[in-house]
Write a structure and sequence with these properties.
Blueprint: E1 22-24, E2 29-34, E3 43-49, E4 56-60, E5 67-70, E6 73-75, E7 78-84, E8 92-102, E9 111-120, E10 126-129, E11 133-136, E12 141-148, E13 155-162, E14 168-172, E15 175-178, E16 184-190, E17 198-208, E18 211-221, E19 228-231, E20 235-240, E21 250-255, E22 261-269, E23 274-278, E24 280-283, E25 289-295, E26 303-312, E27 321-330, E28 339-341, E29 344-350, E30 359-364, E31 371-379, E32 391-395, E33 401-405, E34 415-424, E35 430-440, E36 462-466, E37 473-476, E38 481-489, E39 499-504, E40 511-512, E41 514-517, E42 522-527, E43 533-544, E44 547-559, E45 565-573, E46 588-594, E47 615-619, E48 622-623, E49 626-629, E50 633-637, E51 646-654, E52 657-658, E53 662-666, E54 672-673, E55 683-684, E56 702-708, E57 713-714, E58 730-731, E59 736-739, E60 742-743, E61 745-751, E62 759-764, E63 772-780, E64 783-784, E65 788-792
């Protein structure tokens, strides 16, 4: 089953007392949860042996219904997943113990692992993931998951579109009940028939007795041009000082628009660290192409190195696209961890037929000197269908180790079975690959490349298998981690109409995965962990029409790492602050993240600088002028030179380190009105004194509002610059203003003299307006500003 070398196993683990051969990564576990709430995220115990021989073990407990673990038996090395379910428990503290015993001897007492569960009373809390949807003209369906993030049991809810949006064709279901451990998938279907090219936005309102949550939905309809999409959105590689690598990574270049995407790639930074192998290609909407590169790390000292790739296409409406790569070169004294390829295996068998062909897992290590590994398999159900025992071998950077994995489905009923193979370099350097086995009924014909669905088999459930990030992962925060799962049904056929959403126990925002390979039902995303944690769970929830929801989890750790991180959908209009809202050229924006600058700075230099203490912002490949920088926020101007009705990437670099890019959509105008306390409009009387409740505007008076995001002016004012003296830079798209529903006369609308990116509207308050706090509405074409109130007497 592998290139075995039993003698090398002597170096795997240091010795402890002879009476106890089992070693555990955790000797106690603590959980918390809510009465009537969901199960807590699972935690793992890694079991290894202090001897060269692999050891059989058994796990037992008193059988409390709230405590679960898998597997209950196996061979070292192994990973025990422990979970607790407080849904039927009253608020209190519960304690139990699981016993882990070496079954090959009676001289060593079982190891007792105390388990503590603290259950609190908490009211129900409506939670919808993800909390924002981005769709384009080719994505006509998406799914949100509604759950109770608190306690108290079942939570009924309803869904409605706020203000109406005719392009949202259906919401299924529009009402439901989220029960403990049973989130409800809500499928959103849009129709683009009759819609013109542009940007559309709607808000879905989820309402329950325990709260309301609004989820924005953005729809971008481009013209016939192609759109670049890369998967993954970035890489990070763990390398070793003085050691080269045999990795041959590739990037999938998708065309998410129309027509032919002809692209080329070049290295913006770090050209001495990688070599492009395939630097151009053609992608159609149905056939992606691939960018391939080789890592050249021989001779690098320990440290972090950044590479920035640029993918360009003259036809694409979101060109250029950027791809950051991090080479994390570790010192020779840092123990390596097994890097598995793939990190998950998928088998399809037919009852009464021979087993399916064996598959291979490669074990990579960033070392020139061969090091030993040991591996063992187990099944979640403790059935013996994964005959993978006592495997040892050698691996190095030039010659990865290989293990051959087979399954034996004899005697198994049709269904979906899950297991795991654990690989270890030492008692702390452990990784795990998940294994899924789908058994079809006798006489069924599995799906193939020519036949997308199985014959003589009716699907009843879904199956999820990860294939990128390993179980028991250990990654740094702030660097990109590609994630891929394979979604199939229990007939072994790939599911291409599913929706997969990832959520993270460390508080990172949920992500929607994209279909990356229809041939095998692969869905992909790139996770950039923003928060560290010693125990972090990734929960993948998948839904498909007419099949029940399926949930899979990965557990691992995220290490602290001081690098710049750009939060999703964090580039917003400075005055409106609405996430996901389209922006206009010249807009003053705030950009949220962490580690975005080494120190806070407000340069107060005109024209605005594009580099402040090593912090830069690229928008669509153009350096953005910067008003101010700090560790958690950047104030910048969207370059005026960028064209509207296109999508662009935002990328932040701080002290030579790059963030994973986020995307924004530009339109000709999207005004944001400056508001003060209680949503009152910031306005000036004609003598420049401020309008307030104590000094309200008068009917018929000329006053001035202040805005951002009103778009291009005539004459055009360059990014980062003020309006030239004696010039009136008038907004090309003139606004309409109503106060108390009455049209106001606009005297001037354009850039404010002496400022950068700040617009003003000078207007006359309608003589027939009412009195008190009156509603102000501003529009430029179809674009509406954020609403405000104006005190009028």
């Amino acid at each position: 089953m592998a290139r075995t070398a039993p003698v090398v196993a002597l170096a795997l683990f240091c010795c402890i007392a002879e009476a106890q051969t089992l070693q555990l990564s955790q000797t106690s576990l603590s959980f918390s949860g809510y009465s009537g709430g969901d199960a807590a995220d699972p935690q793992s115990i890694i079991i290894t042996s202090s001897t060269p021989a692999q050891v059989r073990f058994r796990v037992t407990s008193p059988g409390r219904p709230w405590l679960r673990f898998k597997p209950s038996t196996g061979t070292t090395p192994a990973r025990i997943s422990v979970s607790v379910d407080p849904s039927d428990l009253a608020a209190a503290s519960y304690e139990e113990t699981i016993q882990i015993a070496d079954v090959s001897t009676t001289s060593a007492a079982p190891i007792a692992v105390p388990i503590r569960l603290d259950v609190e009373e908490r009211t129900a809390q409506l939670d919808v993931v993800p909390n924002f949807l981005k769709m384009d003209g080719r994505d006509t369906t998406d799914t949100l998951f509604v759950r109770n993030a608190g306690g108290g049991g079942r939570i009924p809810f309803t869904v409605a579109v706020v203000g109406g949006a005719s392009w949202i064709e259906s919401i299924t279901p529009m009402r439901g009940i989220a029960a403990p451990n049973a989130p409800v998938p809500v499928r959103i279907t849009v129709s683009t028939d009759g819609l013109e090219t542009g940007v559309y936005r709607a808000v879905l309102r989820f309402t329950s007795l325990f709260g309301t949550e609004d989820v924005p939905v953005g729809l971008v309809l481009g013209g016939p041009s192609p759109v670049i999409k890369t998967l993954p959105h970035g890489f990070q590689f763990d390398l070793r000082e003085g050691t080269d690598t045999a990795l041959s990574p590739r990037v999938t270049i998708f065309n998410k628009g129309r027509g032919m995407l002809a692209w080329t790639a070049d290295v913006v930074e770090g050209g001495d660290l990688i070599k492009l192998v395939a630097a151009s290609g053609l992608s159609t909407p149905s056939a992606p192409s691939f960018l391939k590169f080789a890592i050249e790390n021989d001779g690098l000292d320990a440290g972090s190195y950044y590479v920035l790739l640029r993918i360009t296409s003259p036809q694409a409406r979101n060109s250029p696209a950027y791809l950051p790569i991090v080479l994390n070169v570790q010192g020779k004294d840092i123990p390596p961890r097994p890097d598995l390829s793939p990190a998950g295996l998928f088998f399809v068998a037919v009852s009464g037929q021979p087993p399916p062909p064996a598959q291979t897992v490669e074990v990579h290590a960033p070392t020139r000197q061969p090091i030993p590994f040991i591996a063992s398999g187990s099944t979640d159900d403790d059935l013996d269908w994964l005959p993978f025992r006592a495997v040892t071998g050698l691996t190095s950077s030039s010659r990865p180790g290989q293990t051959t994995v087979s399954v034996n489905h004899a005697g198994l009923a049709p269904g979906v079975y899950s297991g795991e193979i654990v690989y270890a370099f030492s008692k702390t350097a452990v990784s795990a690959a998940r294994v899924t086995l789908v058994v079809l009924p006798a006489g069924a014909q599995p799906a193939s490349t020519k036949r997308r669905s199985a014959e003589a088999c009716v699907p009843t459930r879904l199956a999820l298998t990860q294939s990128d990030l390993v179980s028991n992962f250990s990654i740094p925060s702030g660097w990109p981690a590609p994630l891929t799962v394979r979604l199939s049904d229990d007939c072994g056929a790939p599911v291409t109409d599913g929706q997969v959403v990832l959520s993270y126990s460390n508080g990172d925002p949920a992500q929607v995965m994209s279909l990356s390979d229809p041939e095998n039902g692969s869905y992909s995303a790139t996770w950039v962990p923003a928060r560290d944690g010693t125990s972090v769970s990734i929960t993948a929830r998948a839904a498909s029409p007419n099949l029940p929801l399926v949930v899979a989890q990965l557990t691992g750790s995220v290490a602290p790492n001081r690098v710049p991180i750009l939060f999703d959908n964090s580039t917003v209009n400075q005055f409106s602050g609405v996430k996901g809202l389209a922006l206009a050229p010249g807009t003053m924006v705030t950009i949220q993240g962490s580690g975005l600058a080494s120190a806070a700075a407000v340069p107060n230099v005109l024209p605005l600088l594009t580099n402040v203490n090593g912090t830069r912002v690229l928008v669509g490949g153009v350096e953005a002028p910067l008003y101010a920088v700090s560790e958690e926020q950047i104030r910048a101007q969207i370059p005026m030179e960028l064209a509207p009705n296109r999508q662009y990437q935002v990328l932040v670099t701080a002290n030579g380190a790059y963030t994973v890019p986020d995307s924004i959509t530009l339109v000709a105008a999207q005004p944001g009105l400056q508001l003060g306390e209680e949503a009152r409009v910031v306005a000036q009387h004609s003598d420049t004194s401020m309008v307030s409740r104590g000094a309200p505007a008068a009917r018929g008076e000329t006053i001035t509002f202040f805005l951002v995001g009103m778009g291009v002016t005539e004459p055009l004012v360059r990014s980062g610059s003020t309006v030239p003296a004696g010039t009136m830079a008038k907004a090309v798209a003139q606004p309409s203003v109503t106060i108390d529903g009455k049209p106001a006369e606009v005297i001037f609308a354009g850039l404010t003299p002496g400022s950068v990116g700040l617009y003003q509207i000078r207007l006359r308050v309608p003589a027939d307006a009412g009195q008190g706090d009156l509603i102000v509405s501003i529009s430029q074409g179809e674009a509406q500003s954020n609403p405000g109130v104006l005190p009028v007497r």
